[in-house]
């Protein structure tokens, strides 16, 4: 969210006296776990739950996948993965992983939306909608947690 778009939301929240106004502030870029090398398939392999966090402490986060019915990521090779949504047995196409700074670009081979991943811990990464210019919206991550 740009500063221009954020200002009206904060102003309204302050005028209404909502104590959670501070919770509506944009999330900062997460601290990256530098122990995980960007662009490699191996760290992504496994079963994952997905949560979309809310910035308002009064609203619950949204679960897109849970460990009872997880997303599965399988290796295609060292720099490509196959992504299977909950209950899927076949993937559309492999996703190319490209190291970009301290993160990883996800580029579907068959086309479609691209994403950008940052590792927070060995068992958690944030996935963002990729943008053509500038940085992703750090306030809108898909939070992936490894299922055990």
Summarize the structure.
The chain is mostly beta strands.
Task: Write structural notes for this entry.
β6 and β7 form a beta hairpin. It is built from one helix and nine strands; from the N terminus they run αβββββββββ. The protein has an eight-stranded antiparallel β-barrel. It is globular, with a radius of gyration of 17 Å. The chain has one domain: Lipocalin. The N and C termini lie far apart (34 Å). It has 148 residues and is mainly beta. The chain has one helix spanning 3-15; strands spanning 46-52, 62-65, 71-77, 80-84, 95-100, 103-108, 115-121, 124-129, 142-146.
- Helix content range: under 10%
Mean pLDDT: 85
CATH topology description: Lipocalin
Q: What about the largest sheet?
A: 8 strands, antiparallel, barrel
Could you tell me the strand content as a percent range? Answer: 35-45%
Order of adjacent strands in the largest pleated sheet:
1-3-4-5-6-7-8-9
Overall domain count:
1
Q: How would the blueprint of this fold be written?
A:
Blueprint: H1 3-15, E1 46-52, E2 62-65, E3 71-77, E4 80-84, E5 95-100, E6 103-108, E7 115-121, E8 124-129, E9 142-146
Antiparallel strand pairs: 1-2, 1-3, 1-9, 3-4, 4-5, 5-6, 6-7, 7-8, 8-9
């Amino acid at each position: 969210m740009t500063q221009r778009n954020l200002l009206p939301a904060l102003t309204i929240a302050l005028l209404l006296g909502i104590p959670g106004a501070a919770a509506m502030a944009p999330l900062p870029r997460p601290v990256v776990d530098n122990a995980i090398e960007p662009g490699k398939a191996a760290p992504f392999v496994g079963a994952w739950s997905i949560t979309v966090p809310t910035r308002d402490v009064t609203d619950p986060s949204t679960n897109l996948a849970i460990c009872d019915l997880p997303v599965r990521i399988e290796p295609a090779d060292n720099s490509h993965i196959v992504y299977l949504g909950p209950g899927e047995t076949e993937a559309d196409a492999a996703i190319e992983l490209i190291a970009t700074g301290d993160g990883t670009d996800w580029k579907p081979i068959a086309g479609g939306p691209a994403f950008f991943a940052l590792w927070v811990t060995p068992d958690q990464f944030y996935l963002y909608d990729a943008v053509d210019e500038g940085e992703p919206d750090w306030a809108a991550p898909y939070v992936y947690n490894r299922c055990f």
